[in-house]
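Hi,

I'm pasting everything inline rather than attaching a file, because the server keeps stripping attachments. The sequence lines come first, and each chain or strand is labelled.
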Amino acid sequence: MAIKGNQSVEYDRKPYIYESANIVGKKESEGPLGSYFDSKIEDDMCGRDSWEEAESELQKKCFETLLTKSSLNRNEIRYIFAGDLLGQLIATSFGLAGFERPIFGLYGACSTFGEAMGLASMCVAAGYADKTAALASSHYASAQKQFRFPLSYGNQRPLSATFTVTGAGSVVISQKRGNLDVRIGGITTGKIVDYGVKDSMNMGACMAPAAADTIAANLKDFGVEPEYYDKIITGDLGLVGQTILIDLLRKQGIDIEDRHMDCGIEIYSDEMQDTHSGGSGCGCSAVTFTGMILKKISMGEWKRILFVPTGALLSPVSFNEGMSVPGIAHAIVVEKE
Amino acid sequence: MAIKGNQSVEYDRKPYIYESANIVGKKESEGPLGSYFDSKIEDDMCGRDSWEEAESELQKKCFETLLTKSSLNRNEIRYIFAGDLLGQLIATSFGLAGFERPIFGLYGACSTFGEAMGLASMCVAAGYADKTAALASSHYASAQKQFRFPLSYGNQRPLSATFTVTGAGSVVISQKRGNLDVRIGGITTGKIVDYGVKDSMNMGACMAPAAADTIAANLKDFGVEPEYYDKIITGDLGLVGQTILIDLLRKQGIDIEDRHMDCGIEIYSDEMQDTHSGGSGCGCSAVTFTGMILKKISMGEWKRILFVPTGALLSPVSFNEGMSVPGIAHAIVVEKE
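And the predicted assembly:
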């Protein structure tokens, strides 16, 4: 039976992660995970005329790399599930239109890669497709322009702020084994959780309650303890959000401190790169997953992890109207075969 | 076998449309379809402080009505698939957070209701849920503010312009028969189609190529002629877009003129309501479907229709940067049992 508990699915026929691809900006390539990435851009504008077009170019290059690495023709990808942070998903629309594939546009803020992997794996496990792709991107400059201040304004960033990752990550999900011995065991789809936090410079605090909610739901639905997973890896809580997550779960009697990891904390070295609380953006979890995490699972270093991309449902309009920043998190069980 | 042709799914166990609900603004309630709607708001602000909050309120009221009409507890809806036109889907995030259900945020511009019905029905047909909900909204004032001019600017609207529908529509999709004898036979997921049109006041022209692409794909994938459907109903092409759609398909040897209908043309009386080319927005197809279309199928007036919500992937940022407005359309086969 596929339905598991209140908000999870466990696959009878676990789909494979057939192949992955990513591309990052210069700063990300110089960080602690630099050696894990497929390719990098030297010019943050990607040779285009605007930050938004640059982000579209990241998506395009990422999907091209995915096709090359997997030796697939674009027509073998039956559906693309993709999204980004920009209003009306323009990085996705303009980045992926040229591939002429049926597409589901998704918005889950920085949790979008989790939402995409969830739906893409459901689709394959149900037999609606042999192969689907999940993709998400973010770009530091387009995100700053969209959500906060133009770069040229030169505002100071508080210590709780995270740094939006410039990068795109993608996977092909398939019923057949590909180049990786990694499968998706199940998913836990998140609810919108709003603790009323209104600080757009402290996204970790906005998202931690949603991450705690989804992780607790996953453990309950699957009837397991945190030890079931070698690692529980959130998307972009950063240092501030990590502390809150661990505290919130501890109050529910769940201790994940010894196995928690956060893509936002891993991707930069604050000491060397002045990134404060960590990295963020859809691209943060997407490139860390397709870079480091998949490789560690594929090599057998980790047997099973819970991957939990986290999103802060922030909009410049709602923020300027004094609204809170609700959070959401979607969890994916990823296993070594 | 569920996979059909290049981009369609035909369900072996066709899911039911269990119940529907909608809510519209004053103008829509005074239009030709007024008597079909469940409820209307008298005050376009819905008693809230901003247009965005008003649209959230529409989503909230719509979902509440859906639960009441279907006599379901919110916890019986396993997943919500929902979206709107605003940047970062704030109408959805703030409108539906209070129901505390696992949610997939979707963006397909005005095609979002089709995208939502597609994924919600795939999910039910695959056995991932007993019941899912699909929901989409738009609001004239929040859309004008987001995409064009603030209302108080009082700009003139060209004759090719459409009028964004204030309203929200939703359905429960279920493996079990509900209050309607209507089922979803299959879906055809659209590609992004960009003919390079750059006129944000002529959305019909931006979307018609995508509608033609999806309709032609549906007919090919299912191996049928237009006569297979009693009606082929697009979302919000309006009068200008309708002409283009019919012409584009005729060039491919497909004639749908005698059975084409467009929600945007049906919802207003241009003569009486000064709406020019017609209605638009996610809400346009969502309220017309859940209002008129479902009732006509349920009553047996139509046995089978192809419902094709159409979206123009317009963003104020990309538009101001001189980019085109690509289109997308998702088709749903809806049948009287």
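Chain B has a mean pLDDT of 96.

If the labels don't parse on your end, tell me and I'll reformat.
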